[in-house]
Specification:
Elements lengths: L5 H13 L2 H8 L3 H15 L4 E3 L4 E3 L1 H23 L7 E8 H18 L3 E8 L12 E4 L8 E16 H5 L15 E3 L13 H4 L7 E2 L3 H9 L4 E5 H4 L5 E4 L5 E10 L6 H17 L5
Parallel strand pairs: 3-4, 3-5, 7-8, 7-9
Antiparallel strand pairs: 1-2, 5-11, 6-9, 6-10, 6-11
Helix pairs in contact: 1-2, 1-3, 1-4, 2-3, 5-10
Length: 294
């Protein structure tokens, strides 16, 4: 009898959970050809068909339903072993999804030292406009701008962070003074593109003064930062970006708003040692950086 190949059973489980082979491949981070090959190999070994192909995707056959119950039990056993085994250090793969600014300017600065302490760990840092979903297994950890309202997820507040208005000294020297937030209506404002906002928490110009609209707009907070540093206008930045740039000055400095980062993991994996260690590390660097600036 052929030896059991756990990868084939994992492929079967992923397809059963995702309902589509292609979606399962994306979640498992392998190509669809590999996923299909593993499924066919398992079906050949067992001598049965595990899925019916439909226009919507893969549906379990009766044999597939019976196997699913057994494989889910196997997966739970593997998870329990991983939780209990201290091992010889962390190993495996962790994908972290974070916002562009926090990921590029905070997490990336500390990530090299973290991976030096855990050389057996492979870390994907996805710092972009939008978030991968732990509930869909697109990421192991996500640092999001709000607490998720549904899904098989564990969430805790990572940190508050402060946002203020900024402009360059050159811009302020060549434009009318800004004594109050009402004066902002007479200035060129930099901000997000409204219909490309990936989270409602990023719509914050109105939090400083009603009716404000940006004339220079970008989906990228890093691009907005560069526009402000180049003297293009006035805009809102997290203090961990704005205060770190000597070209920028706080505008109407007493006015600020606060947002929060939420650390989100899947309920089934949040106790795995590699996930827990990465989560604790993110919590520690958020504390070190003092994101809620005075």
């Amino acid at each position: 009898m052929q030896a059991i190949n756990w990868n084939d059973y994992q492929a079967f489980l992923a397809i059963a959970q995702a309902g589509q082979l292609a979606r399962a491949a994306r979640i498992a981070r392998v190509d669809a050809t590999t996923m299909g090959r593993r499924l066919r190999r398992l079906e050949n070994r067992l001598g049965t068909t595990l899925f019916e192909q439909t226009r919507e995707g893969q549906i379990l056959t009766e044999a597939g339903e019976a196997l699913l119950a057994q494989v889910e039990q196997m997966a739970r056993a593997v998870t329990d072993i991983e939780r209990q085994d201290p091992g010889q250090g962390l190993s495996g793969h962790v994908r972290i999804s974070v916002s562009e600014g926090f990921g590029s300017l905070i997490v990336a600065r500390h990530l090299g030292a973290f991976t030096q302490r855990h050389p057996g760990l492979t870390v994907d840092l996805v710092a972009s406009n939008g978030f991968l979903s732990p509930s869909k297994r697109e990421a192991d950890i996500a640092v999001q701008l709000s607490r998720p309202k549904a899904g098989p997820l564990m969430a805790r507040k990572l940190s508050d962070y402060t946002l203020r208005l900024y402009a360059s000294a050159d811009y302020l020297a060549s434009h009318p003074p800004i004594a109050t937030t009402a004066d902002l209506a007479e200035h060129r404002l930099v901000g997000y593109i409204p219909d490309l906002l990936y989270a409602p928490e990023l719509s914050y110009l109105n939090d400083f003064h009603p009716g404000l609209t940006a004339k220079l707009r970008s989906s990228s907070i890093l691009a907005q930062h560069r526009l402000l540093a180049a003297g293009s206008g006035v805009g809102v930045l997290p203090c961990f970006i704005g205060d770190a740039d000597p070209l920028l000055t706080r505008v109407v400095g007493e006015h600020h708003i606060t947002r929060s980062f939420w650390l989100v993991t899947h309920r089934d994996t949040h106790k795995l040692q590699r996930i827990k260690t990465c989560s604790d590390w993110l919590t520690s660097i958020a504390g070190l950086e003092r994101l809620a600036a005075p």
